[in-house]
Amino acid sequence: MSDTYHHGNLRQALIEAGIRIINEQGEEQLSLRKVAATCEVSHAAPYAHFKDKEELLAAMQNSVNEQFTAQLQRAIASAASAEQKILAMGRAYISFFCHKPDYFTFLFGKQKLVAHLTMDEEHEEDYPPFKLLKAVFRQYLAESGAALPPAEQEVGLIKIWSSVHGMAALACMTGVETTIDWEQIKLQ
Amino acid sequence: MSDTYHHGNLRQALIEAGIRIINEQGEEQLSLRKVAATCEVSHAAPYAHFKDKEELLAAMQNSVNEQFTAQLQRAIASAASAEQKILAMGRAYISFFCHKPDYFTFLFGKQKLVAHLTMDEEHEEDYPPFKLLKAVFRQYLAESGAALPPAEQEVGLIKIWSSVHGMAALACMTGVETTIDWEQIKLQ
DNA sequence: CATACTATCTTTACACTGTCAAGATATAGA
DNA sequence: TCTATATCTTGACAGTGTAAAGATAGTATG
Q1: Beta carbon of B3 within 7 Å of strand C?
Q2: In terms of CB atoms within 10 Å, which of A94, A179, B1, B6 comes out highest?
């Protein structure tokens, strides 16, 4: 199969066009027909390369994940110890998605909630469950007598929330809830 | 405006029907027309109560969040210290979504990725970035000389991943990246 | 070279979606 | 009783994913 068939390499072109649309217009604006039109091809042409819309989406995610993995790999290359590598991965992880925020929602979903994850009291009313955790966390800080600066308070809060959230995700999807030792969640 | 107008209380009925559809058929199967049909009402009737499909979705999320908050509140009621409350909230958080897994994806998005968050080597090939973290984490365990049981290994891994993931979400959505002290991510 | 074969792409069609506009209907208030 | 308003129905439209049938162009086989 040649490289300059009817279109050239439509499969790859569709993947790249889809990713470009997501970055420029957001995921909810992505449709098979629009991707096909971007490649100047009929609306049913993608079905020669992908069984589904889902299969194109999966191919797009694979492509993004390759870039993501490459960046992580680059980050740990120069780190000495494993602990350093973990920290470097954390930085690279966040850096990657900060430069391409649409990739984050594309890979992980909506996630709008986390915008409320700050300790300031302005967005207090936004997300009730998190408001509750904030209040309890302030109480915890008071009890433990620690006078942390605001930035560190935020980090502590995020650590708790994201740990629990990640565990809930794991437990929901895999059902391994009972194997988790909850005492491990404790602060510090 | 009476309580037994044409339909009774269509607004509430639509919200409940929508939630039921999500629990029984999944979110991707939810459509305005199907919700309307479930309430035995014409396909345009919801527009008397909701401007958008999005507005109905938001109302449904509010309803679920109310249940969620109530369960968290119940959990912390009997806890003595703030630290105990945080742990109780963590347990209640996970318990809530374990009993209604579709609520989790409904509120937080896809999240299928986290199914790979186990330390067993079977799903190793699933998600390359996470595979990388797993390898580095094993290396870290070896370096630190700790012989943790598998369950605790998983918890450590989840703590790191979910912390970084949660911080990436925060940084992407709010742009507060620079205020975070990364040294805090360290293990323990 | 001629033929058959296969991958690729187009055209047409269908059911389904969200949304809007115009009209019907029933309740509330004057 | 009359009017106004909220609620609901009907009908329409553009856009969606997808399947079927046909056209086209490359590849392989004789």
Answers
A1: no
A2: A94
Q: How do residues B11-64 score in pLDDT, each as one tens digit? A: 999 999 999 999 999 899 999 999 999 999 999 999 999 999 999 999 999 999
CA distance B187 to B185: 6
Residue B3 confidence class, pLDDT cut points 50, 70, 90: very low
**pTM (global) more than 0.90:** no
Chain A contact present for B88, CB below 8 A: no
* DSSP 3-state percent helix, strand, coil across chain B (nearest 5): 75, 0, 25
Q: Which of B115, B132, B181 sits opposite A173 (nearest CB)?
A: B115
| Option in B142, B173, B183 nearest A111 (CB) | B173
| Distance of alpha carbon A106 from alpha carbon A40, whole angstroms | 24
The neighbour count for residue B60, using CB atoms within 10 Å, is 23
Contact present, B118 and B138 (Cβ < 8 Å): no
Taking the C-alpha atoms of residue A142 and residue B108, their distance in angstroms, rounded to an integer, is: 31
- Chain B window 4-63, residues with Cβ within 7 A of nucleic strand D: 5-8, 10, 36, 41-45, 47-49
Partner-chain contact B105 A105, CB within 8 Å? no
Size of the A and B interface in Cβ pairs below 8 Å? 266
Neighbouring residues of A93: CB distance < 8 A, sequence distance ≥ 6? A72, B129, B164, B165, B168
Token digits of residue A65: 């994940």
